[in-house]
């Protein structure tokens, strides 16, 4: 079986790369499980000071794999694992991000993307809602600005993602932009990083503890609905869904 997560390490920073380019790094059950295992290894390894989450190919993550979707509880577990990881997680994005991929992005502590990257909460266009990914997204993004993109599924660029609070920065050379960030993490005491991250993520984790069961049930209900069946079929057949007004 081909590895779904690439792993490299440089000076105490472990880079995990989503590596399922055939599905545009969509969140399949297998990819979610593989990423969760890799993160667990990083959490336990004293040689890892921080984690960079990135991708191969032109897409960071296309959202849920409609042919092999993860269990909602597993996706919630993965997002919470990133937020609660005792080491900083930095997102490095040079490609496109859709739907569930924005949940991964929002779960990270620091995020940088190239200007060519595009973003979209496409759930409403296939008949569902950004339910589970709201657990990390809503506490970290501007709700008024976010409403437009949640409700319309429109694409937006990296500069807009910074304005929304989904990205820390955008830069033509993402690696150059992240170099001082990673240097700073390497210079920081491991226990101090853990406790400082705990301060920063407390409100996000409170949202998980309060809302995860409700949003997981909502996601399961919507994905089993007639609208979702039509929306997913239309997406796979590359046609407009029946409700589209033209």
What brief labels describe this structure?
ClpP/crotonase-like_dom_sf; globular; four-stranded mixed beta sheet; six-stranded mixed beta sheet; single chain
Helix content: 40-55%
- Under CATH, the topology is which? 2-enoyl-CoA Hydratase, Chain A, domain 1
Rg estimate, integer Å: 17 Å
**Total of domains:** 1
Helix and strand composition category:
alpha/beta
**CATH homologous superfamily designation:** 2-enoyl-CoA Hydratase, Chain A, domain 1
What characterizes the major β-sheet? Answer: 6 strands, mixed
Could you name the CATH class? Alpha Beta
Q: Look at the structure and give the mean pLDDT.
A: 96
CATH architecture: Alpha-Beta Complex
Strand content: 15-25%
Unreliable stretches covering 5 or more consecutive residues: none
What is the H-and-E element order? EEHEEHEEHEEHHEHEHHH
Total helical segments: 9
Count all strands and give the number: 10
Sequence of strands across the biggest β-sheet = 1-2-3-5-7-10
Question: Globular, elongated, flat, extended or rod-shaped: what is the shape?
Answer: globular
